[in-house]
Amino acid sequence: MQTSSSSRWALSALTLALAGLSAQAQTPPAAPANGAAAAAAAPKPPADPSAPKPFAEVSKDAKSQDGLFPIWKKDDKVWLEIPRAMLNKPFLFTINVANSLGERGMYASQMGPDTMAEFRLVGRQLQLIALNNKFRAKGEGMASVAQAFSPSLIGSTAVASADHAERKSFLVDASFLLADIPGYGTRLEWAYRLPYGVDKPNSTFAATRADAQLSTLTGRLHFATPRIPAPPLMPSPIPMPTPPQAVPDPRSFFVDFVYNFRALPETLAATRSIDPRLGHFMESYVDLDSDLKPNNRVHLLNRWRLEKADPSAALSEPKQPITYWMDKNIPQRYRKAVEAGILEWNKAFEKIGFKNAVVAKQQPDDADWDNMDASHASIRWFVGADVGFAIGPSHTDPRTGEILDADIGMSDVFARGSRRVIAEDTAAHDHHDHSAHAPLPALSKGWKESSRFAAQCNYAQAASGEMHFALDLLEARGDIAPDSPEAEAFVQAVIKDVIMHEVGHTLGLKHNFKASTTVSFKQLQDKAFTEANGISSSVMDYNAYNLPLKGEKVGSYNNTTLGAYDYWAIEYAYKPLDAATEKQELEKIASRSKDPQLIYADDMDAGVGGPYDGMDPLANRFDLGDDPLGYFKKRLALSKELWARVQDRGFKPGDDPTRARRSLMAGFQQLARGADSAAKYVGGMSASREAPAAGQAAFTPIAPAKQRDALNSLTSGLFSASSFKFRPEFLSNLQVDYNEWERGLPADIGGAVLSLQRAALDRLMGVPTAKRLLDLPGYLSEKERKGAISLAEVYGSIQSAIWSELKSGAEIEGLRRNLQREHLKRVTTLLTKGGPLPADALSLVRWHAKQLQGDLQAAAGKGGSVETRAHVAESLSALTEALRATMSRS
């Protein structure tokens, strides 16, 4: 019988084993010489194939950078060293965006999210955990809070090495950070409606840095999508965004994320509470230690840790100044203006005893380090294809509100191509959604709860638009020559103004949109006054340019110094106070809010949309002087003057072909802002932040005479076709840029005018205005009600002004027909769909619609052009059908 080789091997092994057993049975075992020999004779347990390799083996030939978490690098491999002493120990984890696409909100030099985090080891898996600081307890409630509110997993990876014997630490592969941790893919999908994802094999670490307080890794992530879908065969009613235009291939691009692991201060900074009479950013959470408080929300003021080196001195330098590093990308010609904007804040700190509290340093032009890491507060200059904003965010210690880092992003809106970007983007379409060009709030504010508008600031973009309108007007008057030293000084002053504003944000100050109303029109014409006090009581407002009417005196054109409110806000946040009396001293400081120079209102007061439409006409972006309604009238006059001067100038050899077009649209941009401010008066209420016990009403209706004045200004100015008369020879010569594929079309004057009028109608006929006018009698005494303005009066005035030709028999011009259709569209929509308007408002809409129907019927039999008669007939038909229809009530 034949056997296989394996069978023969098995039989041989069995024979040997039996022989061995026989020998053992015949020979008694020898006693072990000692215990060590017995141990040596014992079989070793098999090695665990899944156990991590020795630290030295993994890190062989790798170079290390010592730091909070040491970094090891070898070729394209990067490891983080995790000391066991740092497990379960909180630190600050932040992400910044160093490089990006350069369009539609994806810009370089943007501060990203931050959170208090810790490393946790679960078996052989290391987890990066974002801690939940929204709900807190120190006492017996700690356990229940921990059970109720979960933390979040940011990322995880397997342990890569065994522990280092002396260092008591282990290595992990840092490539777990080459992932879309900040959620950039959502931002990309929002902008382009394309599913971009991280291509990890083509993602790398571009740079690393570490010191005792910080470990930084810059991940260069490759985002890609397999294909760009073909456009639909039939155009969609909703326009779809184009794929990325600023990259060579829209399927592929790189984004640099700067990951910072920063040690939290061992000694907690002293906290300071918020007072709503001033505007400071805050760290907010719910305190669940006590169930006796009616409101368990706690708000800690955000501020840098600033302590006197000599506490006994009236004026002392700080132990550690607030230092801003000026990015090497800032053009040489603008560096002095940027530095001046930073250092201007020292004036406020000197008032409370600090000398050189704020320091500006210039990053060397040959520096090989990136000031986007979490150890450098910086001013960064960046560019983009469609960019026009500055932003002043910061990262804070969530335990105390202490500001630990800030990176101001400043786009080059004052230099290359800014006139084209600003004028064409914002003039004719001033009320379209600019959010596509702004940094994503989720990336600006991060994971932890904060105010929606805390750091998102488009002041630079809007200020640049203001600057170009001012330069256009001053050049047209002959006051400033293009490209002259005076024009350059003008631009430098604007840059200083914007930097002061953004530095104010990084010092903890929010916007103040009432500050501009503290200076009278007379004071604005006094150059000595404006140079000493500014044109507003705060650089934290969006301040318009102080342009005089023809014949008026000229003060400062824009803010060049801090205002009274800025000194007050810094005093409240940073003044050294004794802990025993701090609460009383802060109340004394805040109680000065009754000073008219210290009036305050934030973004929500100025209006952000929805129910927060901005009901207080004193809280506005880009107005000036103590009478916002007067400012609107003045801006209308200035826009008309610019249009007249540009038309009178005509076209000269060597002109930029699109110059006149930009000037035309700049005037529309000014009117858009002024019209919104004027419309706030109708149904408006002034708001006070004083506590009820102070004896000042929280909400006070605007005087009826002022409301009627505003309504008349809009109907006689904005709704009038005579406000927008342009010479045919001027319009026919508004050139486009024939070097560009998307060069534009003939100027759409009708669209630009209708955009302004549509915005005013939205507010005048909107739900918030209707509700306030209907509720108005409840705020007035019996005597005051007699002269009060009513919703019926507002609706009637609007309708009479818009359809005035029906009774006069005058020809209805094209611009007027556009406006009338816009009004009729709102009326018919409300008649058929109802909408969220209050019932009484809907009744009034129907009441006035019946009157309009009668006026249209009477006008239908009159003469006029074919266009007028067709328009009247079509309007009558649409309105009659709407009045007959059954309302669809939800």
UniProtKB/TrEMBL annotation:
Residues 485-807 form the EcxA zinc-binding domain. Residues 52-94 form the DUF5118 domain. CDD domains: ZnMc_MMP_like_2. SUPFAM superfamilies: Metalloproteases ('zincins'), catalytic domain (SSF55486). Gene3D superfamilies: Collagenase (Catalytic Domain) (3.40.390.10). Residues 251-308 form the DUF5117 domain. GO terms for molecular function: metallopeptidase activity. Residues 25-42 have a biased composition (Low complexity). Residues 25-61 are annotated as: Disordered. Residues 1-25 form the signal peptide. Pfam families: DUF4953, DUF5117, DUF5118. Residues 43-52 have a biased composition (Pro residues). Keywords: Signal. This is DUF5117 domain-containing protein. It comes from Inhella inkyongensis.
